[in-house]
Amino acid sequence: MNAPLTAEADWHHPLAGMASSPVRAVDHLDICRRQAVGRVLAAPGEGAAVAAILAQIEGVRTAGVEEWLVVDAGTDGSLALDLAERLGDLAFVLDASDADICLRLSGPNSRRILAKGIGIDLHPDVFGIGAAGYTLCHGIRLHLARMADTSFEILVPRSYAQSLMDALKRMGREFDLSTGFSA
């Protein structure tokens, strides 16, 4: 009989084997080592109440109509439990920490890099700081959030992380995009 998996010891990052850039360039793609991701879907008729509670929490991104993602750099496994406790019967909460990989693209050319593969308008007047949503990049569905003027957070399903990473590296080649695991 197999022994049960432990949260940290047996977890394998799907991008662990990808080569990192030896020097961090002005345009850089950070691969987050591990993050907690909670998916929240409001129960019918409870969207406003859920939004009010989530407004008090850091790391909340819009994911659709009455649907949100909450991203936290913590890896202790308590994010989804904390969300479920706070929201009670107002929402359904799913722990997506092992399902999604987080990437952070930053630098003065980040918008131009993303524009090579994403079919949404990333101009600051249209997709401003705090804007978020699902889109496609080279046929891969991902969640994109604008974190700062020249910084974007990307959540991609674990099984597509390597393909997206390859696409982003090609898209950023013109700008000498560097890649590496976050500290």
From TrEMBL:
Residues 67-179 form the GCVT N-terminal domain. It holds the Pfam family GCV_T. SUPFAM superfamilies: Folate-binding domain. InterPro entries: GCVT_N, TrmE/GcvT-like. This is GCVT N-terminal domain-containing protein.
